[in-house]
Amino acid sequence: MSTNNEQILTPFDIGNLHLRNRLAVAPMTRVSATEQGLATDTMARYYERFAKGGFGLVITEGLYTDQRFAQGYAFQPGLSDDEQALAWRAVTDRVHAAQGTLFAQLMHAGALNQGNRFMTQSAAPSAVRPKGTQMAFYYGQGQYPVPQAMSDEDIADAIDGFARSAKRAMTLSGFDGIEIHGANGYLLDQFLTDYTNQRDDRWGGDVRQRLNLTLEVVKAVRQAVGPVPLGVRISQSKVNDYTHKWAEGDAGAEVIFGSLADAGVDFIHVTEFEAWAPAFPDGGDSLVSLARRFAPQVALIANGGLNAPERAVQARREGADIVALGKAALANPDWPKRLANGQPLADFDPAILGPIANIKDSELALA
């Protein structure tokens, strides 16, 4: 094995969980569940192929957590009741049979609602219409609605939804760990973001106050599931605001990453469009490097444009313990095996995600 390959093909432990290598499949919305949010056989085969392809860790698409405001997309899978949780058992069984590890990503869409079967009204920290337009490849159309500002009761329900979903994931579904989705413009990120959070109560204010909801969710989930691998995904950019940067710069990164580490997470999953690029316009360190500096004791997952082995190795050298691949994994569900065997990597075909970003038969044929 080459020195470079050793950087990403060697084993790694998150908490008490042993991973066979440092390569993960990043969470990607695929709108392929039933209308009722149940995982399907197609989804089981889709996730299984990554485990067969050698990935040490697979993280699911975002799973909605309650039957109020959490769902964001039509045909999005959920963990909001026991039926949904039990449907995931066939997926986890297949992944485990292929010697893989599967984490459930728990997601509340907040204001980014373009397909909620439970509620017509969306909810968010403040009544601010999201930027951009709904995503057509997830069945969306037109502007996002203006959300209602969440009451304390709404916030308590959202926290409870994360905790209950996490418990179902571990006890009914058979997942190996939990990732809380605090990135990409969804609810927890809406509370973190200055222009979408205009509150003047305990949930708003400076960056530490705006992080409060994420920290409360971490606390509730930890109480629900105990000492299992638990982490948070964090980003600056959003699905509806690609260029957003934290106004507080490095100081904000110190608060965010340091507070998450203090909260007892086992890992932080940093995602950027180009993980190696400076985090802020004035140059300086990447967000990966900042996370490593301010949360040195926490396992770090890096995601964002790390498709080539050289980029993956670079992320490792900047402090990432695990490299998460998205489009590269779709194009190469056996990316780790190809790397180990010196085989060429296939280019990503954008047709996989169009016109609807559901799982295609052609993808399953690659397994």
Q: Could you tell me the strand content as a percent range? A: 5-15%
SS class: alpha/beta
Number of helices: 14
- Principal-axes geometry comes out as globular
Give the beta-strand count. 12
- Trace the largest sheet across and list its strands: 3-4-5-8-9-10-11-12
- Do you know the CATH architecture? Alpha-Beta Barrel
As a percent range, the share of helical residues equals 25-40%
Write up this protein.
The chain is an alpha/beta fold and 367 residues long. It has one domain: TIM Barrel. The chain is built from 14 helices and 12 strands. Helix 9 (249-262) links the parallel strand 9 (230-235) and strand 10. Helix 1 (3-9) crosses helix 11 (309-317), helix 5 (152-173) packs parallel to helix 8 and helix 9 (249-262) crosses helix 10. The protein is globular. It starts with a helix and ends with a helix. The model has no long low-confidence stretch (mean pLDDT 96).
Characterize this entry briefly.
With 367 residues, the chain is α/β, with parallel strands linked by helices.
